[in-house]
Amino acid sequence: MSRISPLIDRLIDALQVLPGIGIKSATRMAFHLLQRNREGAGTLAGVIVDAVRNVGQCRVCRNLSETESCSICSNVKRDAALLCVVESPSDVVAIESAAGYDGKYFVLHGRLSPIDGVGPADLGLDRLREHVVQTEMREVILATNPTVEGEATAHYISEALAGTGVSVTRIAHGVPVGGELEYIDGRTITHALRGRTSIE
């Protein structure tokens, strides 16, 4: 059943593929583009089509890239013996914005989830082990999210890399800066206590 007109309905439905966008937000966006910014809508449509056609995965780290090797993998100034394993390209952006890491990455594009049918092969874990061995890594940092699936993924990777001679570490999880203990959940406090460091 048509809500407004077939084309506008299709636009509203298409906008709902974005995360966190329901029918009301999608309707507001559609009207804004059609009423106030048709030129911007045309630019947006063109860029989306261009990105979908030309953005793939870096052959080395699996991050999103429009070239065979992404800018991070191609950067000879970065520490090639240090590898950070993350769940998604947005995690790379988050770590890069913190500006405290100068190694390379490996992007899983998910996490182990047998219920959803996501296994080791889907995450490229065979490629990860091969890459670690061939590149003679010094350290692999597991930066999967602190969820049940993220922890299981980190554990699986650490087991898979056993015997390679590489140091496998896990990012710390704990109390955020500015946080107060009384408002923090027990699991986070437990992680913080286990990951405590000495004060020098």
**Strand fraction band?**
5-15%
> How many alpha or pi helices?
8
Query: Remind me, CATH topology of the largest domain?
Result: Dna Topoisomerase Vi A Subunit, Chain: A, domain 2
What percent of residues adopt helix (DSSP H or I)? Answer: 40-55%
Q: How would you write the strand order of the largest sheet?
A: 4-3-5-6
Distance between the termini: 68 Å
- Summed over residues and divided by their number, the pLDDT gives a mean of 90
Overall strand count: 6
- List low-confidence stretches: none
| CATH architecture type of the largest domain | 3-Layer(aba) Sandwich
Strand pairing plus helix content: what structural class?
alpha/beta
Helix/strand order, N-terminal first: HHHEEHEHEHEHEH
Task: Give a description of the structure.
By secondary structure, the protein is α/β, with parallel strands linked by helices. The protein has two domains: 6-54, RecR Domain 1 (Helicase, Ruva Protein, domain 3); 78-194, Dna Topoisomerase Vi A Subunit, Chain: A, domain 2 (3-Layer(aba) Sandwich). The chain has helices at 6-15, 23-35, 38-54, 71-74, 89-98, 125-135, 148-160, 186-194, and strands at 56-57, 64-65, 79-86, 103-107, 139-142, 167-170. The strands form two sheets. The protein has a four-stranded parallel sheet with strand order 4-3-5-6. It starts with 5 loop residues before the first helix and ends in a 6-residue tail after the last helix. The model has no long low-confidence stretch (mean pLDDT 90).
